[in-house]
Design brief:
This protein is α+β, with helices and mostly antiparallel strands. The protein folds into 3 domains: 118 residues, no CATH class; 151 residues, Alpha-Beta Plaits, CATH 3.30.70; 182 residues. It contains 15 helices and 6 strands. The chain has a 4-stranded antiparallel beta sheet.
């Protein structure tokens, strides 16, 4: 059962008084144990070098967008990764100026142990926006100073080498890619050239234009054929109404009049349906003009000869019939010519359709070749720009431009150790020695199952306690306790004096 908080101080004091000897031994053991720890505690001397990251030189704004300077992002991680490299630490571990002449003759196990020690005692910390420090702790101030200075120098040298190596490798990589794409483009161009030399049918647009032109010519030829056929039919009808011969015994003007009237009727009928530019209308007009001319000539001959000289009649070939017949033959010949043209155009259309099929069959291959060409050309142009940027970046790193690291503060020789020192152990030992008995008493009274206060009993049995008898000591017990107290106090003072003397001697360098 836990002791009430109000009773703890009195119970602790009572326990310490009742066990003075044990309290004294706890004080003695704790204080001198802490003091002894101060004697054997390994002192560490720390030395650090401060490095400035300069990324604001005049080259940066001038080359913005044209060159890529080495980025300072994740700066501390980059510094740690660089310094943790085995090659860098091995160079520091085998430095004879730091570890003596024997540093160059280390075995593999000794070298690994020293590299591990360097990694454990090294620390990288930020010191502002563009500053960071590389510190090293060691039991020897000389070793801490030399190692810290060496690590700063190794980092700057390694960083410079890495920047140049990275920019050079980036340029070489992009240059190899450019050359690779040059070969690919040359291969695609060769395939495309070979494809075009084998397939001379042209493009789909050219074939469509040629097909449309041929079809237009066929339509025009068919229209012209229809017109010629209509004209031939009209001439045939006229031939059927015209006599092939003329008799000299009769009056020719009557025959001419009948023919003129027939053609005029035909002309009037055509004008009701067509314009005057219609070919049959034009042809009938020419025939009417010629018939009128022949009629006028016949009437002139009739005035000079008032009667016919032949009664039985001599027949003559009708000149109108001959003209119509000749025109019909010419029209039919034109129709044959148009039909020949239509047949030729039809064959050309069939050949053009076969050409279209070949073009469609080759279209996929042509599209693939041109697509490969466009994609490779686009990537190639982009790589050319990147190669020039990489070239400028490489020259910047070689010239020491871009991001540079400089030693802002050199490593300083540390004369005082870092971490807890002997005076802290001395003060803490005496203080902890005094506190330890009371701390032990507090723990004891809290864990002791015995009832020490009235409240504990009342809470345990649930009944009120009516009275409490105090502890009564005899005069003998009082005298004995007084003697023990005087002895313990004298011993404690003597131990304290010894403790202080030992601590002061250590601080003054006497021991």
């Amino acid at each position: 059962m836990a002791l009430p908080l109000a009773q703890i101080p009195s119970e602790v004091i009572r326990e310490v008084r009742s066990r003075k000897g044990l309290a004294f031994f706890i004080f003695l053991i704790v204080s001198f144990t802490v003091l002894g720890a101060g004697f054997v505690w390994p002192y560490q001397y720390e030395s650090k070098v401060v490095i400035y990251a300069d990324d604001s030189n005049i080259i940066r704004p001038l080359m913005e967008g044209s060159a890529v300077t080495t980025n300072i992002g994740e700066r501390l991680s980059t510094v740690r990764e660089t310094l943790w490299q085995r090659r860098v630490l091995a160079e520091a571990a085998t430095d004879k100026d730091i570890f003596g002449e024997s540093a160059g003759n280390l075995s593999d196990e000794e070298l690994e142990a020293r590299i591990t020690s360097l990694r454990q005692n090294m620390e990288v910390a930020p010191r502002g926006e563009n500053y960071f420090s590389i510190s090293y702790s060691s039991g020897s101030p000389v070793e801490a100073f030399r190692v810290a200075q060496k690590l700063g120098q190794l980092f700057i040298a390694e960083n410079t080498r890495q920047k140049r190596s990275e920019s050079r490798n980036a340029y070489d990589f992009i240059d190899n890619q450019v050359k690779s794409y040059e070969k690919q483009i040359a291969q695609v161009e060769s395939k495309l050239k070979e494809f075009l030399s084998k397939n001379v049918d042209g493009t789909e647009a050219e074939a469509n234009a040629r097909m449309a032109n041929l079809r237009g010519q066929v339509e025009l030829a068919r229209m012209e054929k229809s017109e010629l056929e209509a004209r031939a039919q009209s001439i045939q009808e006229q031939l059927e109404s015209v006599s092939q011969t003329l008799s000299q015994g009769g009056r020719t003007p009557d025959a001419f009049e009948r023919r003129i009237q027939s053609l005029q009727t035909r002309l009037d009928d055509l004008r009701l349906r067509y314009h005057d530019s219609y070919p049959d209308i034009i042809s009938i007009k020419k025939q009417l003009a010629e018939l009128r001319s022949q009629r006028d000539a016949a009437e002139a001959n009739g005035d000079r000869s008032t009667e016919s000289s032949s009664v039985g009649g001599e027949t003559l070939v009708n000149p109108l019939y001959q003209d119509l017949r000749g025109e019909l033959v010419t029209t039919r010949a034109d129709i044959q010519t148009i039909e020949t043209r239509i047949s030729a155009l039809t064959r050309l259309i069939a050949a053009q359709e076969e050409r279209m099929e070949r073009i469609q069959a080759n279209k996929a291959e042509y599209s693939e070749l041109t697509r490969d060409m466009e994609v490779n050309k686009e990537i190639y142009d982009d790589l050319l720009k990147r190669r020039e940027m990489a070239r400028l970046s490489m020259h910047l790193d070689m010239e020491g431009q871009g991001l540079n690291y400089e030693i802002s503060e050199s490593a300083q020789y540390s004369s005082t150790p870092s971490g807890p020192q002997f005076r802290l152990f001395a003060a803490a030992g005496l203080l902890l020695g005094i506190i330890a008995p009371f701390g032990a008493a507090i723990g004891y009274v809290q864990l002791d199952p015995r009832i020490r206060a009235r409240e504990q009993l009342e809470e345990s049995i649930g009944l009120p306690v009516l009275g409490e008898l105090p502890r009564v000591r005899t005069p003998f017990e009082k005298r004995r306790e007084r003697k023990v107290t005087v002895f313990i106090v004298f011993a404690a003072v003597l131990v304290s004096i010894t403790y202080v003397a030992v601590a002061v001697s250590e601080l003054l360098g006497v021991i």
